C-alpha cells in the first residue's frame, strides 16, 4: 500500500510541474509582445517591428481598453494580391510609423463575425474598427464591388484611410 501512495504522489508532482511550466511559458509571451526584439511570426511579414495581436477577441479587447482604433487585414499566403499588398505595406515607411497608433491584426482565416465581411470574404481586405467596436463602413477603398479591397497601387489611399480612422476618432471622443 505504501508504494502505491508514493506513485500517486509522484504523478501529482509531475502534473503540478507541467502546469507551472505552462504558466511560465505564458508569462514570457506577454513580455515579448510588449517589446519585440526579433521579427514576430504574428506579423506574417506585414511589419515585423510592429506589435500584432493574436486573435480577433484579443484585438477587440485591446481596442476597447486602449481607446485605439483596430485595423484588421484579411489575407492569404498563397494569394498573389495579398502578397503584393503586403510587400508595399511593409516597405511603406509612413504606413509602418502610423500603424503604431493602431491595434493590429492580420488574419489568414475568416472569423465567424459577419461584420468583418460586410460585402464578402475576399482577400486582401482591410477594415477599421473604432474603440466602441463599430466597424467603420465609411472607410473604404476605391472599388465599388469590393469595398475594403486595396491593390498595391492604392497604398496612398490606404495611408490616408489610416489617417482618417485616427482623425475621426479624435473628433468623436
UniProtKB/TrEMBL annotation:
Q: What is its main location?
A: endoplasmic reticulum
Keyword hit for Magnesium: no
Alphabetical list of InterPro entries matching this protein: AGR/TXD, Thioredoxin-like_sf
Which UniProt keywords are listed? Endoplasmic reticulum, Secreted, Signal
Does the keyword section mention Magnesium? Answer: no
A single GO molecular function term of this UniProt record:
dystroglycan binding
Q: Where in the cell is it found?
A: Endoplasmic reticulum; Secreted
The stretch of residues making up the signal peptide is 1-21
Q: Under the cellular component aspect of Gene Ontology, which terms does the record hold?
A: endoplasmic reticulum; extracellular region
Q: Which family, according to UniProt?
A: Belongs to the AGR family.
Its name, as the record gives it, is AGR2 protein
Organism annotation: Furnarius figulus
This protein's gene is called Agr2
Amino acid at each position: 500500500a505504501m508504494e502505491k501512495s508514493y506513485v500517486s504522489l509522484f504523478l501529482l508532482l509531475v502534473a503540478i510541474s507541467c502546469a507551472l511550466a505552462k504558466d511560465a511559458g505564458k508569462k514570457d509571451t506577454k513580455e515579448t509582445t510588449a517589446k519585440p526584439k526579433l521579427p514576430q511570426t504574428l506579423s506574417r511579414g506585414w511589419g515585423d517591428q510592429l506589435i500584432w495581436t493574436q486573435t480577433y477577441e484579443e484585438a477587440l479587447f485591446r481596442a476597447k481598453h486602449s481607446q485605439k482604433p483596430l485595423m484588421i487585414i484579411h489575407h492569404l499566403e498563397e494569394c498573389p494580391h495579398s502578397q503584393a499588398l503586403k510587400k508595399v505595406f511593409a516597405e511603406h515607411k509612413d504606413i509602418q510609423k502610423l500603424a503604431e497608433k493602431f491595434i493590429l491584426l492580420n488574419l489568414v482565416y475568416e472569423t465567424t463575425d459577419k461584420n468583418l465581411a460586410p460585402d464578402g470574404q475576399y482577400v486582401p481586405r482591410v477594415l477599421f474598427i473604432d474603440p466602441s467596436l463599430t466597424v467603420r463602413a465609411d472607410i473604404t477603398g476605391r472599388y465599388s464591388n469590393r469595398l475594403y479591397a486595396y491593390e498595391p497601387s492604392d497604398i496612398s489611399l490606404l495611408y490616408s484611410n489610416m489617417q482618417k480612422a485616427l482623425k475621426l476618432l479624435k473628433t468623436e471622443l
